[in-house]
Amino acid sequence: MKGAVKNLFALLGGFFRWWFGELAALLPGALREGLRGGCERLLLDMDATPPRLYRLRGRKATPLDSGKAASAKGKAAAVLALPRREVVTRQAQLPAAAAENLLEVVGFEMDRLTPFSREEVYYACRVAGRDAKNGRLTVDVMLAPRRKVDSLLNELRGQGLKVTRVDIATDNPGRPLGVNLLPEETRPA
User: How far apart are CA 90 and CA 109, in angstroms?
Assistant: First the structure.
């Protein structure tokens, strides 16, 4: 009897893990990230000189000294915050209907909106304004050269950092912009 109850709990646990995973997949990426606030992550802020490593717990960033940084590597997911000077930001006007699939629309329009092709850059976008009267969106498009980011990612992997997100540094140390330049298909589940 105990074995049957144990199996039932294991089955129910598996079902609920699957169900909550499916529900979480329906949420926008930024909200999913916010709900993971309890997870410990590392942030490598490349805008600082020298680059600084922070431990992120929710919205709190704690700088790590070199001894703690070495022991933290390989244990937690890492966010890479690129220096603002290495990221091109451009505003674009798009039809309001583009809001449903904004990232996809910007990808298709990349060579029209910027001097780059979609294959040359990692990019993210977010709505900066809405003009309901004219049915238009103002969108901030942020992009970084793919070759440079890939080189950084490979170097960091070699140092034991598992980068799961590429963000953009801000004036607030340890507080990146809150975007992810990595393509959706390469982001961890």
Answer: 13
